[in-house]
Every structure is written in structure tokens, then in C-alpha cells.
């Protein structure tokens, strides 16, 4: 029967392919990690494939933590070469890496990403945000007369008279996102300090860790919604809720300016310029990490890294800046770092 | 049904004035209930049809435009100083001129075209890059490297328009929205309008969407489904090649040869249970077994196929067993009666008669596997992956690739609204495949199925 023949033939091909897999060495760079870095990495990978004789690198998403976890699984062709991250690698992750044999890691900072607050284009304008407002609007508990009470604020105008009198409905990144960490640190913690709540909590006898945890605890009564998906999900929530405010990356906002209205933070509107000068307060560096042991083993790995941080790609006016990356003023140092293969913990 | 219309036999005569012909209250009530029940049924079907129409309608409305693409016809002067700095027309040395070198060439060509058509604009000639796709630069470079003799000449290229211009022709981008968009100005749209009147800007069917590779975040206009389609194809080969023989062998043994005991009962229950296991579980299993333990390459269609095989097997076993069961025992008895061995009776008589049912089950199992995304997330098949066409059969199985549903999921996540349209377009392609497969299954069943 021909069907039997077909299946036998295809099983044979499979078996041949499977044995070939062990013998064949990998000739493309494999990258995984932050979904914030993914757009930039895909732009670079595409241009790299066009301009060099190496195959186009493979870029997977999944989040900074997931990417670094896979990065630290060990050395070898079935592990990834580069992890993209929207935050710096943690000490614990470096230890895990070292325990699995990934001892030499090159840290590459590619530039900065602004975190913007935006609402529906037809909704009310939010033009007076301060970190303090976000803390007071989103904190789970606020100190009042020497005791912690549940957050009583229900409208933005309750926390700041200059804000519109609409119900608080914030869509913030979920805890698996690197963006959440920046949001907690640069907005909630900052706001906690600005409002004096931090001092009040200390005065109440809370230790430093407990105070920080209390500052970053977000209310769970529905006024704040964690978005575990991507920015497209936040956008969908904003589109159906004219009074909602969402947290986005600058690049995502710049691609959707026709449906989103950006809010100012501390009176500054987020643009590539205001972020690069540091005027706009909420930004964070973006990184990728290279496994040094793979350089020279995986073809094109070092070339990809140098191409990524070259002036014509990551510099001013390059395709990454066009897409929304804020160029790193210290790009030359990063370039030298890749050239010399300087690993973390050595050199600078 | 009978007792209500019959006269109760235990005494109690029918009420006076009521005949068998006129219906009494109780019968009326029963008839009304039956009528209501039918109405509920019709309402349920109508609701189902309405949902289907809304779904298909929105898919078609959102996705149909992905099959059209805007192109700009522009004569490009290939400046020898820029593209061949060494002046020896050697493609290898000319490769050192990167796409960044080519960008000003295309920008100048665009500005020259605008000037030649006598279009007055306030747009700075240097800002013409908002009109065309970043892919255009690579297109020009590839052509020059392939034909070095073109250097120094003016060659007409059909370059892709940028996603905003494309959106404008498709009415996705309006002049109102452009006012708020920092990527393009209203002035650009005026140029597009005039070039369109001159016939330099045209919208036509986009074969690259069906056959092309994935593109990066900044060029949705270039992205296509072709490579992901091949990824799906190789995965389906693996699924078919493994799950059909294993599934059929397992079901023949269980159905025809295995003794009925506790052990086969347990196996049977477990197969039914496996069929109900969520597909993401198979993804986690695949990651642990195939990639981490057996060290198969990541993102490879081979691994995707193996994972989907695990998922498809129970479906195939269950449908094959049903098909074998439906062959009447008299066929087996007759075969055995004329002296055939048990194996001969199965392979010469039972299996051919059960084949239509087996094939139908297999195709439906494959269609299910074709639309599956969740397990692929875990074995690294989602992301910017489907970029290179495989070089051959082995590379098709082993090189990183995506699959159609994974590609759609990836597009739906991307920031540029043009990718949203692509995602809907991708759904149309996927649905065409699924409908085709289901249609084949139905045809096979209609043509070959025998009823006893």
C-alpha cells in the first residue's frame, strides 16, 4: 500500500535527520529574552542577515527573566548565545550561571528605553502626573496618623487637583516584565519618598525592607490591573476604557500615536530627546548578555554584537533610534568592550 | 407518547364534549412544549451561525487587505562612488558597502522622482525615507550585488512603500491620524496622491505575503507567511510519519489481537485521558525530553513535530479504533472461515475497509496539530525566527523555523498596527488550509465509506 511506503520513507528521513542533528553544528546565532528588546534585536538581526554572509540570527521573546534563565543553563550548542534583558542581570542569576559553567559573560548596554504613560486619544488628558500621584493612586495602603490604612483614593483628582476627576484605572505591566521593576523603582518608590510616606512608615517603626515593600505594594481592589501580556493587550484595555491609563514603552507609543495620548511626567513629555538628557524621569537601560565561551564557536556571534552597537545601527539617526531607542551616549565604551571581549567583573 | 392520547383504561370516563379529534388541554400543553423545544434548537443553531458569520466576516474584513500591497516604481541611479568605492565591480568587495550606504541613494532617487513629476512639496528631500520601506534598501543592494554591471546606470525598481503609505492607500491611515503620527506628515500623503495619479504608486496583489519570510518590527510591509508555512509543512510531515504508523499499529493490536484484561483496560482509559490533556503540557514535556535531555536543536520543526505527534496520537488511535470496530465481525469470520490467518484477515480485509475512517481521523488530527500554538511557545518557535528558507530537507527539519499559528501570534503582538492586519491575513491563510484538510476528510469519508 502506498500509504505504508510513504510512512516508512518519511520515518527513514526522520531517523536520518535526527542522527544528522547530533553531528551538524549550529551556524546561526540564537537569542532569547526581553520582549522590550525583541523589536530592536529583530531589526538588527534582519540588517545583519542582509549585510553579512551569516544566516539571520534567531530572536525569541519570553521576558528578561526567562531569557536569562535559559542563558544560564550552560555552555554548548543547544543553549542560547545571547540573552536580551530590559534590566541588569541580578547577582543571583550570575551565581546560577557560574554554577552551570557560564562563567564569562559580556554585558552590553544598547541604549535607553523610555516608559510612557498614555491614555485613549478621546479620553481626558493627563497632563500633571508626578510620581507622587501614582504612588498615592496605586499604593495598597497609605500611612495616616501613625497607622497604615487602605488606600481611600478613588479618583485621580483625589490625589492631585490638576488631574481630571475620573476613576483611577491603571494598566501596569505584570511582575514577569522587566518594565514592572523600573515602574516600581522610578515611580512608586520615588513617589513614596516624595510624599513623605516613606518617612512616615519609618517613623512607625518599619524597617527598611518592609518600608520598600509597602511602598511598592499595589492595591488589588481593581483600580490597578496587572497586564501579563504584551503592550498590545494594554492597548486593547485602553481602547475599551476611555478613562484608563496604561504603561507603555516609548517605541510602542510612537507606533500608535494615532490611538494613544501621552501623559507628561513631572511636566515633561517623553521623547527621545527628553529621555536622553535625563529630563524625563522614567527610563531604563536595555542590555544584552553574550556568552563568551560561544565566541569563535558560533559563527557570526561577535560580528552580530559589534554590528548591534555600531554607530550606524545604535547611534543617533540609526534604525534603532528611528524605532524609539534612546541612544547611549557612552556607545564608544560599549564598542570597545565587545572588541576586547571584556567580561563582567573584569576591567571597568 | 401513547398513553396520553389513549383513553385512560382505569375507569374515569373522558370529560363530556371532548372527542379524540379535538385536542384537550394536556395535549395542547405538550404540543406547545414540543414547539418551544424546537424553537430553542433553532435559536441555538441561529446563534451559532451568527457567531460564525461575525467571526468570518471580521476575519475577512480585517485580513483581506493584507493580500494587497503598495509599491512605488522609482528609477534609481546607482552611484558608482557609493556602491563600488574600489571601482572594480567585484561583488565581494562591493559587499562592504552596507545597506546604510544605499539609503541615501534611494532617498535621492525618491526626491528626484518627486521633482521630475513636478510635485511641489514642503517636505525636505532628505525626509523622503518616510515614503518607502526600509526593505527597499536591501532590495537595491541585493540586485546590485547580483548584477554588478548595473552600477553607474539608472535602473527602475519596484520598491515597497512604507507601512504608513500602504495603510493610507488601504484607508487604515487617515489624514486625521497622520496629524498625530510622528512617523509621516500630511505632506508625504500629498506626494503619494500625486504619484498615484501619475501611476508611480500602485496597489497590487502581494504574493510576498503568501510566499515571503518574516520581517523585523520596523518593516511590516515586507513580512510574509511563506517560511512559517514551510515550518508547518515539515512539522506535519513528522506528525504524519510518526503518528499514523504508531497510531494504526497500536489500535490494530488493541482492537484485534489484545486480550481483554485489566491491563488493556488501563491502557484504553489512559489513551482517552491523554486525548483530553491540554496541549501546553506536551510543550513542557517536549522541552524537558527532546531539547534538554536528548539535546535536539531548539526552535526546530523536528522537535515541534515530535511534540505535536504526542498530541495527535490519542486522536488517531481513538478514531482508528472506532473505524476498526465499525467493520462487521462477519467479514473477519468469513476470512477466517476460508482459512486466512488472523493477520491476513486484518491486513487483507479489515484494514482496507477501515481505511477511510482511519484517514479521516488522521486528517482531522493533523488539522488540529496544524492550528496548535501553545506547545510551540515552549520549544522556542515563537519570535523573530521564520527568516530564512531552508536549504534542503534536513535543514527544513532542523533549522530554526516557526509555524503558521505561531507566526500569527507573533504578529498580533507587534507594535506597528500594520502587523495587526498581517495577523488577520495570516488567519485567512491558516483557515484556508484547515478548510481544505477538513474538506478532504469529508470527501474521503463520502467516497469510500461503506455502510453495513
From TrEMBL, chain A:
Keywords: Signal. Residues 23-312 form the PBP domain. The keyword Signal applies. InterPro entries: PBP_domain, Phosphate_ABC_transporter. Residues 1-23 form the signal peptide. It comes from the Bacteria. The keyword Oxidoreductase does not apply. Pfam families: PBP_like_2. SUPFAM superfamilies: Periplasmic binding protein-like II. This is Phosphate ABC transporter substrate-binding protein, PhoT family. It comes from Palleronia pelagia. The lineage of its organism: Bacteria, Pseudomonadati, Pseudomonadota, Alphaproteobacteria, Rhodobacterales.
TrEMBL record, chain B:
It is found in: Cell inner membrane; Cell membrane. CDD domains: TM_PBP2. GO terms for biological process: phosphate ion transmembrane transport. Keywords: Cell membrane, Membrane, Transmembrane, Transmembrane helix, Transport. Residues 1-27 are annotated as: Disordered. NCBIfam families: 3a0107s02c. This is Phosphate transport system permease protein PstA. One of its GO terms (molecular function) is phosphate transmembrane transporter activity. It comes from the Bacteria. Residues 229-441 form the ABC transmembrane type-1 domain. One of its GO terms (cellular component) is plasma membrane. The chain crosses the membrane at residues 39-61, 227-254, 274-294, 300-324, 350-371, 423-444. Belongs to the binding-protein-dependent transport system permease family. CysTW subfamily. PROSITE patterns: ABC_TM1. It is a multi-pass membrane protein. It comes from Palleronia pelagia.
Amino acid at each position: 500500500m502506498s500509504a505504508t511506503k510513504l510512512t516508512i520513507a518519511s520515518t527513514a528521513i526522520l531517523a536520518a535527520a535526527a542522527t544528522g542533528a547530533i553531528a551538524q553544528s549550529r551556524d546561526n546565532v540564537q537569542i532569547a529574552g526581553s520582549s522590550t528588546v525583541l523589536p530592536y534585536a529583530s531589526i538588527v538581526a534582519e540588517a545583519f542577515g542582509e549585510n553579512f554572509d551569516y544566516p539571520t540570527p534567531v530572536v525569541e521573546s519570553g521576558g528578561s527573566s526567562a531569557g536569562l534563565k535559559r542563558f544560564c543553563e550552560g555552555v554548548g550548542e543547544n543553549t542560547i548565545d545571547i540573552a536580551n534583558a530590559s534590566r541588569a542581570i541580578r547577582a543571583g542569576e550570575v551565581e546560577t550561571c557560574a554554577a552551570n559553567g557560564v562563567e564569562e559573560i559580556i554585558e552590553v548596554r544598547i541604549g535607553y528605553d523610555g516608559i510612557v504613560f498614555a491614555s485613549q486619544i478621546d479620553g481626558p488628558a493627563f497632563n500633571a502626573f508626578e510620581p507622587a500621584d501614582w504612588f498615592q493612586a496605586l499604593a495598597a495602603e497609605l500611612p495616616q496618623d501613625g497607622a497604615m490604612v487602605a488606600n481611600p483614593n478613588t479618583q485621580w483628582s483625589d490625589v492631585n487637583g490638576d488631574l481630571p476627576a475620573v476613576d483611577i484605572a491603571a494598566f501596569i505591566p505584570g511582575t514577569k516584565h522587566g518594565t514592572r521593576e523600573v515602574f516600581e523603582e522610578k515611580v512608586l518608590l520615588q513617589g513614596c519618598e516624595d510624599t513623605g510616606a516613606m518617612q512616615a512608615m519609618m517613623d512607625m517603626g518599619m524597617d527598611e525592607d518592609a518600608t520598600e515593600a509597602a511602598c511598592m505594594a499595589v492595591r488589588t481592589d481593581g483600580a490597578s490591573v496587572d497586564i501579563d501580556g504584551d503592550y498590545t493587550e494594554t492597548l486593547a484595555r485602553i481602547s475599551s476604557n476611555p478613562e484608563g491609563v496604561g504603561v507603555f514603552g516609548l517605541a510602542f507609543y510612537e507606533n500608535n500615536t494615532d490611538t494613544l495620548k501621552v501623559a507628561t511626567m513631572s511636566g515633561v513629555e517623553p521623547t527621545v530627546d527628553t529621555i536622553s538628557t535625563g529630563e524625563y524621569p522614567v527610563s531604563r537601560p536595555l542590555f544584552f548578555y553574550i556568552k563568551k565561551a560561544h565566541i569563535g564557536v558560533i559563527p557570526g556571534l561577535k560580528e552580530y554584537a559589534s554590528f548591534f552597537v555600531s554607530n550606524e545601527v545604535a547611534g543617533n539617526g540609526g534604525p534603532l533610534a528611528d524605532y524609539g531607542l534612546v541612544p547611549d551616549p557612552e556607545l564608544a565604551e560599549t564598542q570597545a568592550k565587545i572588541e576586547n571581549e571584556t567580561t563582567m567583573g573584569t576591567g571597568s | 407518547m401513547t398513553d396520553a392520547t389513549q383513553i385512560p383504561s382505569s375507569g374515569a370516563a373522558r370529560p363530556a364534549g371532548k372527542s379524540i379529534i379535538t385536542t384537550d388541554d394536556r395535549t395542547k400543553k405538550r404540543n406547545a412544549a414540543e414547539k418551544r423545544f424546537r424553537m430553542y434548537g433553532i435559536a441555538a443553531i441561529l446563534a451559532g451561525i451568527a457567531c460564525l458569520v461575525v467571526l468570518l466576516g471580521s476575519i475577512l474584513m480585517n485580513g483581506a487587505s493584507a493580500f494587497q500591497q503598495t509599491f512605488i516604481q522609482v528609477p534609481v541611479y546607482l552611484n558608482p562612488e557609493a556602491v563600488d568605492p574600489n571601482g572594480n565591480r567585484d561583488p565581494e568587495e562591493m559587499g562592504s558597502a552596507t545597506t546604510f550606504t544605499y539609503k541615501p541613494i534611494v532617498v535621492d532617487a525618491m526626491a528626484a522622482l518627486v521633482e521630475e513629476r513636478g510635485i511641489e512639496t514642503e517636505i525636505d528631500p532628505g525626509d523622503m525615507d518616510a515614503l518607502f520601506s526600509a526593505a527597499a534598501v536591501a532590495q537595491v543592494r541585493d540586485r546590485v550585488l547580483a548584477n554588478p554591471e548595473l552600477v553607474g546606470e539608472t535602473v527602475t525598481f519596484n520598491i515597497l512603500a512604507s507601512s504608513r503609505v500602504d495603510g493610507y492607500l488601504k484607508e487604515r491611515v487617515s489624514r486625521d491620524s497622520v496629524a498625530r503620527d510622528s512617523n509621516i506628515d500630511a505632506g508625504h500623503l500629498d506626494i503619494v496622491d500625486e504619484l498615484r495619479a501619475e501611476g508611480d504608486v500602485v496597489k497590487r496583489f502581494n504574493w510576498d505575503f503568501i510566499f515571503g519570510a518574516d520581517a523585523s518590527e520596523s518593516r511590516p510591509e515586507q513580512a510574509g507567511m511563506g517560511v512559517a508555512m514551510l515550518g508547518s509543512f515539515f512539522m506535519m510531515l513528522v506528525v504524519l510519519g510518526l503518528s499514523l504508523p504508531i497510531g494504526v499499529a497500536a489500535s490494530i493490536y488493541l482492537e484485534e489481537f489484545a486480550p481483554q484484561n485489566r491491563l488493556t483496560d488501563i491502557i484504553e482509559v489512559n489513551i482517552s485521558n491523554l486525548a483530553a490533556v491540554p496541549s501546553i503540557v506536551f510543550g513542557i514535556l517536549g522541552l524537558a525530553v527532546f531539547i534538554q535531555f536528548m539535546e535536539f536543536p531548539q526552535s526546530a520543526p523536528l522537535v515541534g513535530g515530535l511534540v505535536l505527534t504526542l498530541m495527535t496520537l490519542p486522536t488517531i488511535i481513538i478514531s482508528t479504533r472506532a473505524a476498526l470496530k465499525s467493520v462487521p465481525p462477519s467479514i473477519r469470520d468469513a476470512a477466517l472461515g476460508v482459512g486466512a490467518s488472523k493477520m491476513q484477515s486484518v491486513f487483507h480485509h479489515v484494514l482496507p475497509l477501515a481505511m477511510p475512517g482511519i484517514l479521516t481521523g488522521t486528517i482531522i488530527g493533523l488539522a488540529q496539530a496544524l492550528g496548535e500554538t501553545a506547545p510551540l511557545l515552549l520549544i522556542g518557535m515563537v519570535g523573530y525566527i521564520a527568516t530564512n528558507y531552508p536549504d534542503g530537507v534536513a535543514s527544513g527539519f532542523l533549522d530554526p523555523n516557526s509555524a503558521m499559528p505561531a507566526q500569527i501570534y507573533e504578529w498580533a503582538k507587534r507594535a506597528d498596527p500594520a502587523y495587526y492586519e498581517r495577523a488577520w491575513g495570516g488567519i485567512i491563510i491558516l483557515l484556508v488550509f484547515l478548510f481544505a484538510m477538513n474538506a478532504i476528510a469529508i470527501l474521503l469519508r463520502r467516497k469510500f465509506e461503506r455502510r453495513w
